[in-house]
User: Which sequence fits this backbone?
């Protein structure tokens, strides 16, 4: 078992901002002082406040857990890690400002972020210019590892193309070819719906839909439009609090009796926040906690629950955890903190089983720096026994199968001379 950071820190306290997140810190500064070494600073930018806060908080919790684990075992290259967390507040300008602060004032050796794909994309411009190693744990829009890929940036979560490819055929086979989309009007939503439409049309389907603000709260007009269209499946592509509000209103309208639910992501943070009648549909999970017989998974889940005081362990926890360990793997292989050396060390490097936490081979593909991992597809349902048992896996889609070739992404990686 690894050291635990402060237990009992729940989402409500964390959402209040950076001060609450600081409560998760271990006593690492004392260790650093005793060793007489300066820490390696890692900057983490995520929307700790706003409609995506629950997802962001889980990512930071996973990262804090990894930092505690690594520091207890001796750190990286003999130095302790210091994680500096900044709140992007779900605002692009704020996210970019925080990136400049972390790089120019705090002198971090790596940047992580953002859940919001648009913010992640904007931060990439800063980190590329400053030649800082950058990992995007949970921003999905395709260009990050596609046509606008950067030599210094890696991504852990799937592309929207991968998530759509993994679930579209299942939705069509189970329910039919008539879809209605409720999609957030920003980078993630645009590329996600484009990929669903491409896959749906290839299967002979048809669709309608609305694009709404990322923090939308009233879905009544769109749900009335969906009801009139009479789709086989309603795809709720919103995220975080907006998706939760949409699901609640969907059930208030009684629409669960008229059409199926489904889509790319219905993350456990959101599933647990909606009424039982909305805990339904067929979706992707980008990592899942219930993997009997897979080494190290049960211990990770147990430790995350103990460390956070939550009754679940999510893909977002795994994203943060993998992100920090990826830095350690790269630094110790490269024996350096220089960005270009970290990048070359991490390309095509398989994650060890205690980090991958799944049966599939997990690695960052050299051509586009996209993590290749299994995609868990299946059915969401009300809890069965364990409060977190809200999803039944039907299949695991290989990451490379869903991603297609590097050439198909449009990424043409250009390294500094």
Assistant:
């Amino acid at each position: 078992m690894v050291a635990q950071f402060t237990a009992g820190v729940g989402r409500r306290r964390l959402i209040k901002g950076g001060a609450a997140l600081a409560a998760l810190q271990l006593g690492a500064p004392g260790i650093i002082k005793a060793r007489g070494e300066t820490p390696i600073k890692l900057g983490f930018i995520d929307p700790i406040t706003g409609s995506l806060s629950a997802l962001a908080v889980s990512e930071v919790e996973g990262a804090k857990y990894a930092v505690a684990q690594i520091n207890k075992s001796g750190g990286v290259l003999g130095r302790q890690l210091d994680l500096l967390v900044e709140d992007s507040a779900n605002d692009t300008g704020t996210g970019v400002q925080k990136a400049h602060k972390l790089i120019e004032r705090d002198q971090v050796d790596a940047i992580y972020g953002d859940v919001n794909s648009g913010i992640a994309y904007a931060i990439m411009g800063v980190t590329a210019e400053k030649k800082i190693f950058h990992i995007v744990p949970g921003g999905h829009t395709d260009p990050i590892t596609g046509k606008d890929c950067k030599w210094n940036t890696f991504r852990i979560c799937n592309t929207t193309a991968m998530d759509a490819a993994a679930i579209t055929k299942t939705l069509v086979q189970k329910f039919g070819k008539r879809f209605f989309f409720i999609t957030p009007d920003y980078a993630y939503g645009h590329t996600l719906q484009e990929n669903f439409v491409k896959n749906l049309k290839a299967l002979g389907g048809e669709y309608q839909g609305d694009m709404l603000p990322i923090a939308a709260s009233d879905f009544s007009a769109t749900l009335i439009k969906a009801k009139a269209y009479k789709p086989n499946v309603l795809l709720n592509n919103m995220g975080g609090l907006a998706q939760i509000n949409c699901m609640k209103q969907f059930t208030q309208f009684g629409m669960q009796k008229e059409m199926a639910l489904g889509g790319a992501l219905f993350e456990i943070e959101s599933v647990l926040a909606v009424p039982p009648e909305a805990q339904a549909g067929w979706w992707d999970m980008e990592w899942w906690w219930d993997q009997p017989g897979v080494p190290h998974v049960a211990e990770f889940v147990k430790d995350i629950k103990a460390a956070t005081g939550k009754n679940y362990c999510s893909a977002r926890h795994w994203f943060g955890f993998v992100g920090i360990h990826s830095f350690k793997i790269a630094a110790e292989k490269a024996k350096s903190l220089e960005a270009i050396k970290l990048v070359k060390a991490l390309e095509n490097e398989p994650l060890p089983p205690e980090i991958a936490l799944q049966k599939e081979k997990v690695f960052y593909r050299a051509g586009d720096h996209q993590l290749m991992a299994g995609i868990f597809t299946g059915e969401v349902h009300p809890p069965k026994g364990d409060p977190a048992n809200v999803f039944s896996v039907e299949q695991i889609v290989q990451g490379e199968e869903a991603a297609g070739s590097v050439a198909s992404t449009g990424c043409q990686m250009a390294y500094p001379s």
Q: What stands out?
A: The chain has two domains: 11-158+292-373, 161-285+376-403. Residues 1-36 have pLDDT under 50 and may be disordered. The domain at 161-285+376-403 is CATH 3.40.50.2300 (Rossmann fold).
